[in-house]
Amino acid sequence: MHPILSKKQLSPNVTRLDVRAPRIAEIRLPGQFVIVRRGEGAERIPLTIADADPAAGSITLVVQAVGKTTRDLVALNPGDVIQDISGPLGRPTDLMTSGRALCIGGGVGTAVIHPIAQGLHRRGVAVVSIIGGRSKEWVIFEEELRRLGQVIVCTDDGSHGRKGFVTDAAKDVLAGGGVDAVYAVGPVPMMRAVVAVTKPLGVQTIVSLNPVMVDGTGMCGGCRVSVGGETKFACVDGPEFDGHLVDFDLLWDRLGAYRTQEQESARHEEACRIGLKKPEVA
Questions:
Q1: Which part of the chain is CATH 3.40.50.80?
Q2: Residue range(s) of every CATH 2.40.30.10 domain in the chain
């Protein structure tokens, strides 16, 4: 059992949970993740380890409430417990040891960028972070990233930072030169757009992929992705890959494989919540 130590709302649908998991906190590295199961019979889902405090024996999980399982998780409060947390899983980030890195986070992807920026900063790499959200209330981890280097904030409506997309700011930073590598995490369209900017410039770009994942050990095959024309398993070969080699079309198709079932589950949950009969399945 893993008790919830603290809880904080980061944006309208993103929640930070600090959870006791001392063995994971001690050995986790940037880029790694855990598989979480709230309780018996619950769905298993992957979550990035956004931060860790070995002294306190805690890890930080950042959860975007988009489906039944994630809504159940963010409904937990300090003192409640998560039954299973398996990890750390995945390959750690291949971190630079010198130079200047550009870290780009979109939405909840900013939480994934945070431990990467931490690791780079500890190695003496100069870090510039570009983070974005729909508006000011959707921007997360700004304060934490400012401790590690320069931060450029972008919002769709211009309510905070500069108006526009993170790719617009990335073009400006890259045009100035001196960027040795880019680390980008966010929605698939955002990562694809970043790659479209960096590929012609020949700037190494690492992206973190988020395909459907069940066991986290490579056995189920659900997290298959195509990188450089080869099939890879995001849970054991990644989750980070060379963005210039990723087949984003295939990734996008696979992410939508269970969209109908997810929507049906959400409708049933809503019907139960308001005390109505479950809708008929079409």
A1: 93-208
A2: 2-89
Q: pLDDT confidence of 260, banded at 50, 70, 90?
A: low
Question: Within 13 Å of residue 32, how many CA atoms lie on the same side as its CB?
Answer: 20
In 3D space, the residue among 12, 16, 99, 122 whose CA is nearest the CA of residue 61 turns out to be 16
Query: Of all helices (H) and strands (E), which one includes residue 34?
Result: strand 33-37
Alpha helices (H) along the chain: 22-27, 68-74, 109-122, 142-146, 166-175, 188-198, 234-237, 248-255, 259-273
What contacts 280, CB < 8 A, 6 or more positions away? none
* pTM greater than 0.90: no
- Report the topology of domain 93-208: Rossmann fold (3.40.50)
For the CA atoms of 260, 264, 266, 269, what is the dihedral angle to 10 degrees?
Answer: -160
Residues whose CB is less than 8 angstroms from the CB of residue 13 and which lie 6 or more positions away in sequence, other chains included? 64, 65, 66
Look at residue 49 and give its three-state secondary structure.
strand
CATH 2.40.30.10 is right for the domain spanning 2-89? yes
Beta bridge partners of 9: 15
Only one residue has tokens 């159940």, namely: 72
Nearest residue to 64 via CA among 109, 8, 108, 105: 108
Residue type present at position 168: D
Q: Across the beta sheet with 33-37, what order do the strands follow?
A: 81-82, 2-11, 14-20, 58-64, 44-53, 33-37, 84-89
Q: What is the pLDDT of residues 129-152, one digit of tens each?
A: 999 999 999 999 999 999 999 999
